[in-house]
Structures are given as C-alpha cells and as structure tokens.
Amino acid sequence: MKKTLLAFMKKTLLALLLFSLSSGFVKGQTSQSGYELSDSAGVLELVKWERKDSIVDLTKDEKLKQVKVIGKCCFVFNDYIKTVILPEGLEVINGRAFDTCKNLHRIYLPNSLQVIGQNSFNMCENLRLDSLPRNLKRIEYGAFWDCCRITISKIPNTVTFIGGKAFTLCESIQELALPDSVTEIKERTFAGCKGLRKIKLPDSLQTIEKYAFARCLSLGEISLPASIQRIGVQAFIGCTSLRLVTLPPKVKIENNAFDLCKDVVIQEIQITSDPYSSY
Hints:
This protein is mainly beta. It is built from one helix and 19 strands. It has a seven-stranded mixed sheet with strand order 1-2-4-6-8-9-10, with no helix packed on it. It has a four-stranded parallel sheet with strand order 12-14-16-18, with no helix packed on it. Strands 3-5-7 form a three-stranded parallel sheet, with no helix packed on it.
C-alpha cells in the first residue's frame, strides 16, 4: 500500500513539474519575449528585462506601452542599452531600475512620470539628460548619484521632495533653480557638483543639511532666502571659489558650515517689514 502511494505521489509531482515547465509558469522565468510583466490591481509593472537591445522603445509594443511602473532593478547592470524610450502614462521608476547602466546615453522620461526612485540612475556615467518631466513630484535618495554628464538646469515646480545624494557628483550641472515647493536640502544632495556655478534657492527653504553643497568647487556666491533657519555641519565645506554668502539675521549656522572656504564673506541682509502690512 505504501509503495503504491509513494509511486502515485512521484508520478503526480513529476506531472506537475513537467506541466509548469511546458507552460512557462516557473517563478522568476521570463517569457520568450525577453521581459517579465506583473499586473497588480490593474497597475502594469515591467519587472525584468533580459533582451540585449541597444535601443529599448516601450512605445512600440502594445503591452509595454501600457506599463505604469518600471520595477526595482529591472535594468540593473545592463551594459547593452544605449537609448531608452519610456511611454506616456508611466508614473514610477522604482529603486535601482537603471543602476550602473554604463552605456546608457539617452532616456526619454514622459511627462506622466511622478516618482524617480532611490538610486534609479546611480552611476549611469554616460547618461545625457537636460530636463526633467514637468509633472514630477519626488526625486528619491541617490536618484542621479554620479551621473556626471547630466546638465539639467531646473527642478520642476511640481517637485516637493528631493532626497539626500540625489545629485551627488553630477559634475556637469552648471546652473540650477529649485522650486518653491522644496523646504529642505538634504544631506549631500549636491555634494561634489564641481561645475555648479550658480544656484537659485527657493523662498520657502528652511534647512540646508550637512554636506549638502560640499566640494562644489565652482560655486562663487550664494543668496539664502529670508525663510532659512538652519545651515548644517560642513554644508559648504570645500567650496573653494565661494566668495560671498548673503543671509538673513538669526540663522543657526552649525559647526564648520563654511570650512575650507577661506576667502568667503558672510553678509547679513536686514529684512525690513512692510510699513503697510498692518493696514
């Protein structure tokens, strides 16, 4: 009886295995199309990409052009892709999606994009990008870390959050304007942006965290808005070209905020109240 039962179980397991292999239902296996999709609650996500194309155009495939999310690590370490075109309707690029894609030169980011996830384009050292989508809301930690060739000059007004190290070592950015929706510049956000000569800070800015602009070697002067309350530890350390900082009175300047800025002059600007404000 036991032998018969064991034999039956073996045959059943073998049949199930053969069925799963023939049907392509093995977990983590991509289809013959070379990519894997996931549909959760009607949100289509591109989970994995295993093709070796140099040009990836999601708008040319009926399924792929409906993708709303690029999944975590989807293209990570992909040395084949050089150009990527993402479809309108895409809303999220998840963490490390294009991490260390060394040969990625161009990417089209649709205006529907709202979130660029953590380390999404980390170390994409050949990526050229001169603008961001106009409906973008969040740029997460390390999103463009060490993307040394991007040249964006404006963060869209819709952006409410810029994570720490988001633009660390983006050496080709020369001028940058931040939107009034941003109230804090986080740790090392622009550290090592050696080419940054000019930055327009928002009138809403309250805090500059530690090392936020460390070693921005080309930054010559900076004007801090009346809203600023605190400048963190070594926020501007090593900004050797910095000559003038204007700021309102009573700003809390933490230890060595301007360390190694040997020729800098810090000038307080008195804020006069509107004589008609009480009427």
